[in-house]
Fold these 2 entries.
Entry 1:
Amino acid sequence: MSSSPKPQDLRSEHRDTLLRLFRHPTSHNIEWHDVLSLLQAAGSVEELHDGKFVVRLGAETEVLARPKHKDIDAQQVVDLRRMLTSAGYGPLVEELKAKGEEV
């Protein structure tokens, strides 16, 4: 993955998930399977035997736990924003917002 992601690098549903993750106020209905799909498109994801996921995105590696329910919680949103911003997706989010892409 390049250090400067472009909107065309992600499919429409991935861009929608990315925008939902960066929405203010924080959305409380972002489904785990959508996040997992975005992370697989943007980096690499390995499922461990205990049901946790090793996510490599840019220079960062994090272990994420599958939420108990279908939606991720607010802390996971914060963690994902940090990871995605560190991997260079902050400017992409701003570009998508400027283009008026909606969820």
Entry 2:
Amino acid sequence: MTYRKQEAQQTAAARAGISERTARRVDQGESTRSRRPRDWLTRTDPLEAVWEVELEPLLKRSPGLKAVTLLEELERLDPDVDWRRHRRTLERRVRIWRAKHGPAQDVIFRQGHPPGRLGLSDFTDASGLDVGIAGAPFAHRLYHFTLAFSQWQHAEVIVGGESYVALAEGLQNALWALGGVPEIHRTDSLSAAYRNLEVGVAEDLTQRYESLCAHYGMKPSRNNRGEAHENGSVESPNGHLKTALDQALLLRGSREFEDLAAYRRFVAEVVGRRNARRREAVKAESAALRQLPSMRTDDFEEAIVQVTSSSGFTLRRVFYTVPSQFRGHRLKVRVYDDRLACYLGTTLVLTLSRGRPVGRSRRGHVIDYRHVLHSLKRKPQALANLSYRDALLPGDVWRRTWDALLAELDVGMACRTMVGLLSLAHESACERVLTAVLDEALEARRLPDLARLTERFGTVREQAPPTVEVVLPSAASYDTLLSTQEGWA
């Protein structure tokens, strides 16, 4: 009737959510109810004989009992009755009893977040996105940072698990991209920040995390264990972010990426578009953020390794190869989530992709065949029983080519052919094209012809330096120049 004062009958009915017929009856002063509400049963209660005697005492003693458990108990007590046909009635009765007499439940208190006060970090499993990198499935996590007030977000692809270096690098990247620092930084019970390990290790990691927050002037905070809703300002956006990425992948038409860098750019673009929609809220919150420090703090772990006669080193159950020039040297390694930065003294000399062990019993390998190729060319048969041969070959096509060579040729010839192919790929800078050629040969069930491939791709030879002719001026020309300058003076 409030809408009817200003609107026509049809419009007022639509705005009130009732039919036109009902609106006419209201206008005519008729009641909209045809009869009073029913407050009586229309059939006999099938549980009347057992509810107070059998079921309610069980619920009072053990409120956690489910309706289906009570139903099974009734079937045990009186198997001649078809209690299954009363299952819905029993479930409804149990639900009503719990609402009236059940134990008190936890109450969630919705919080208001003033601008600039709270930033939250979390890791979320993104394997469900089914992303592929260079043709291989890519199981990974996302580090996710968000501001509680404006919902500004930052996300990074994490290759390994939840670690301190992943948290430190992701958090610092987020803060510097944001251009300010919130008052409080909250996490859930991250293994990266709080680990239930030995006392010494737990204290060390906790101190490092607290030092990280102290460097930026933030107060570290965490929610109570098992209470994910207390971290809801980032838990809920985790799902929204993965949904947005999934939809963007569907629009893209492919979940395959050429390399990790391309996938990281894709994630950054999706997050950037989402942040653009919150521009006004972010602008309001930016004014309340604290100033960044003058420089970043450490977001890596350090280790000292010895390069062995195998032209490599082992770090955290992973073997890495390096150029043989470093054999016998001690390298200082900075361990990040996805890479190792190797220093000789204070000079950065090498950056390697970070590897992970294969299970608990097998160590991993990060091998670059270019590091050991010069030695393999002198001793090609070492390839046959090389402990890291599969990791040395640059991809599945090369491994299948090796199997095909080994099946058709003797070991010596197979080794020489494979080493020759690796040498051709390196010296002619044609690894990708050569991989496609080898794949075609495998499809055609023929072995690669090293001689013809060498003739086809050739080798990169150093070009002769260009001839530069230098014409020296005569001494008299200098006299002319000097006399001209004296005339100017």
